## 1
Amino acid sequence: MKLIKLSIIATLLLMLGCDSTDTFTSRPYICLTFDDQHQSIFTEAYPLMEQFGFAGTAFINTAFIGANNKLTWDQIDILVNNSNWEIGGHTLHHVNLPELNYEEAYEEIYLDWLALVERDLPHHSFALPSGHANLEQFSLISEFYENIRTSLNLRHYAPINRQYLGYAAFQTGYSADIIKSRIIEAIENHEDLVIIGFHSFDAAENDQITFCEPEYFQEILEFIAEIDLEVITLHQACELLGN
Ligand SMILES: [Zn+2]
């Protein structure tokens, strides 16, 4: 039943999308984020993103770049320089911030930020590792970053609170329809921004929680393209919709 509803809405959206007098006053921007520097972000997701001309936002732990099964700095440079991807901070070592004292948290956040700055990479956005930070750490992060993404599945309406963003994370075992439904819900609710989060695309990377089959990822991209939503980076969205 839910699938039937989904396909009816998708058909409706397609029909409306063909109408030059588009009646949608508010259609959400889509941000696609990629956390934790898995090698498959480059080998599996990036080529598909290129097919659709979409630029993503990759949140990286800079201490792990170049490690086994992880992105390399050269690959990150390609994402940014060839395809206008955004890179964001995610702490040096993917720490659980609330477990750290001030100095430890400062080092994890500041040195990660500095690694982006020194490589002339974008450094506007930060994603909380595993979604956790205390209030003091929120204000510390905001000394370095304009945009902060939590792990909450929030609805975003302009003016969005760019220091308290949320996302819908693709989870292991999901079908593409779950993410498509979230996008349809956002259109129905006149949300201004939907952030969709991915992690690994290769089962061999042993991501038990947020692994996404490349074919499901492709299906999600096809859906976004079919209903003609605009994919932009997180910082672009914050600049357009933020307070
Ligand atoms: Zn992470």
## 2
Amino acid sequence: NLFLLLVSKKPSLHFLFGKNFEGATRIVDQRGVKRISGNPSGRFIFQVTGESRKKDQYLCFAENFCACYSFFYDVVNRGEQLCCKHQLAARLAAS
Ligand SMILES: [Zn+2]
């Protein structure tokens, strides 16, 4: 699992994900990640609370999708980030 490998090397995580990593760490610290399991499929999705004042909540697959604006803008459109901070937070919380 590439992500777990990266987590074991936190300095390089920060290098890869930059400010998103700091935001993700704050979200995890504030217990902003909830895992919602499907029954009976056993699949799960994350509900992640954002850092804006409104505390928006985003549904998010850690591997490949988040409903937030940053995911569409930074990840899909511009390709400048590997994932958004909500996905990072979900992965950190699950690891
Ligand atoms: Zn997101």
